[in-house]
Design brief:
- By secondary structure, the chain is an alpha+beta fold.
- The chain folds into 3 domains: 244 residues, D-Maltodextrin-Binding Protein, domain 2; 95 residues, 3-Layer(aba) Sandwich (D-Maltodextrin-Binding Protein, domain 2); 91 residues, no CATH class.
- 41% of the residues lie in helices and 20% in strands.
- Strand 12 and strand 13 form a beta hairpin.
- Helix 4 runs parallel beside helix 5, helix 5 crosses helix 13 and helix 11 packs across helix 12.
- About 1% of the residues have low confidence.
């Protein structure tokens, strides 16, 4: 064989080998989720269960012959998820602004970088994190907890909220109360056994514990006016190598959000099936006018929340290196995903409205336009929540439903002051001489309103006994 011919054969062999290797390339997409933290559902659980990611993964150009290895791993908190991201075992993760800040710091400490690519859900007003007490506790407000023990998952969004909330009530977190660390799965039994006086936690536990009947919520993060959110982070190197894959993930998240908005009851049921988190609790957060808003845009309030989290964790000596909040957020991927989905990112960025309620009164059939005293009943066996223009409108229907042998899974009302959705069973009420009923998160607010409006104050049991709710 002549040398030129041998060279040609070797070249052909090399080309064939390169082609084979290209065809055999596998791109791993390892995603860490927090299934029980229902704010992360559109960036994890729903994408996984509905198999949405495959729909958007690139299949042309440099990805023409790529094989995708999609891996999912669930966590109960952000810290272990971060550990695996830093160790290159995960490429994408979902968590709140506090553990997310710790994620950014951990990457920097390891000589790497992570980026926050999107918000998934949150509240520009601060609702979502909350403080609960045992059901039969004598305490009805945060200011009454002086000298008491409060547990909270340390370095969480709820921890930051608790510190600010205590200070706003004139309490020194280091001297006036005892704060201990407890994860939700430990705090639940501790509340039931009376081993702690109060517990602060993130979504969904400040609502889940009251829904399950062993706690009462006495404080909501909205009272501290401190924005909070959950979002998705990506290793910066992965994003650099595979920006199209990051956009595909965000396209899947956007579809998950749209599906949830179209039928929140249905997808709340799916979340319950996978996580055990009761569907009425997921609906409380993410149904129409819910406690939190699923929102993928980087609003100034969310950027502020991230900066606050970084500063707080550094002050608490929970992180050694402070990520630069401005560079930590990279919105280019979500903007591209919005554009590909035919959505207007900038318009949504300017819109702070929650998921709107488009419903008629279950009794009168008339459209509901005023939601200040809105009420809702989720009847067992019914696929949709019944809505009522007023709490009084729900009163008779609930009595009739129970009389006919039906059970109600949840009663929803709205706090007249803060405009947040509440579980009717743990709210306080003021009923005026005309029979108009208003709902409140806190007893002192109901008392103040009653004094100013010649109303009587009732808890849920008293209201039921009086023939209302």
């Amino acid at each position: 064989m002549t040398f030129p011919r041998l060279a040609r054969n070797l070249l052909a062999l090399a080309t064939l080998s390169a082609s084979f290797l290209a065809q055999a390339e596998t791109v791993r997409i390892a995603i860490g989720t927090q299934d029980t933290t229902i704010n992360c559902a559109t960036g994890g659980l729903l994408i996984r269960e509905l198999k949405l990611l495959d729909k958007y993964l690139p299949r042309s150009g440099k990805y023409k012959d790529v094989k995708y290895d999609i891996q999912w791993k669930n966590f109960t908190s952000g810290a272990p998820l971060t550990n695996e991201m830093v160790a290159d075992k995960l490429d994408i993760g979902t968590m709140a602004e506090f553990p997310g800040s710790a994620n950014g710091a951990a990457f920097l400490k390891a000589g790497k970088k992570s980026i926050f690519v999107t918000v998934l859900s949150g509240s520009v007003l601060g609702s979502g994190n909350g403080v609960v007490v045992p059901k039969n506790s004598p305490y009805t407000s945060l200011s009454e907890l002086r000298g008491r023990t409060i547990s909270v998952p340390f370095a969480s969004a709820a921890h930051g909220m608790l510190l600010r909330a205590l200070k706003s009530q004139g309490l020194d977190p280091e001297r006036d109360v005892t704060i201990i660390t407890q994860a939700p799965e430990v705090a639940g039994p501790a509340l039931q056994s009376g081993k702690i006086d109060a517990h602060a936690d993130f979504v969904p536990f400040a609502e889940l514990f009251p829904y399950r009947g062993f706690a009462r919520k006495i404080y909501d993060g909205v009272q501290s006016s401190t924005p909070t959110f959950h979002g998705s982070l990506v290793g910066a190197e992965f994003a650099r190598k595979h920006p199209e894959v990051v956009v595909a993930f965000l396209r899947a998240a956007i579809e998950a959000d749209q599906l949830f908005a179209s039928n929140p009851e249905k997808y709340s049921e799916l979340i319950e099936k996978i996580t055990g988190i009761d569907a009425p609790v997921s609906y409380l957060f993410h149904g129409p006018l819910g406690l939190q808003t699923r929102d993928f845009t980087w609003k100034p309030e969310y950027r502020q929340a991230l900066g606050t989290a970084i500063d707080t964790l550094h002050l608490m000596r929970r992180i050694e290196i402070k990520p630069d909040a401005a560079n930590f957020v990279d919105d280019q991927y979500i903007r591209t995903a919005f554009k590909q989905a035919g959505l207007n990112y900038d318009a949504r960025l300017k819109n702070n409205e929650p998921l709107a309620l488009k419903s008629n009164d279950a009794l009168t059939g008339k459209p509901i336009t005023d939601t200040k005293r809105l009420a809702g009943l989720w009847v067992a066996g019914e696929p949709k929540v019944r809505h009522y223009a007023s709490i009084e409108s729900a009163v008779g229907d609930l009595a009739k439903l129970e009389k006919s042998g039906k059970k109600v899974r949840a009663v929803y009302v709205h706090d007249l002051i803060h405009r947040i959705k509440l579980l009717g069973t743990t709210a306080w009420y003021a009923r005026d001489a005309r029979g108009q009923v208003s709902a409140f998160l806190q007893k002192d607010a109901a008392v103040a309103y009653a004094a100013a409006n010649k109303s009587s104050v009732l808890d849920y049991a008293a209201l039921r006994a009086a023939g209302n709710l």
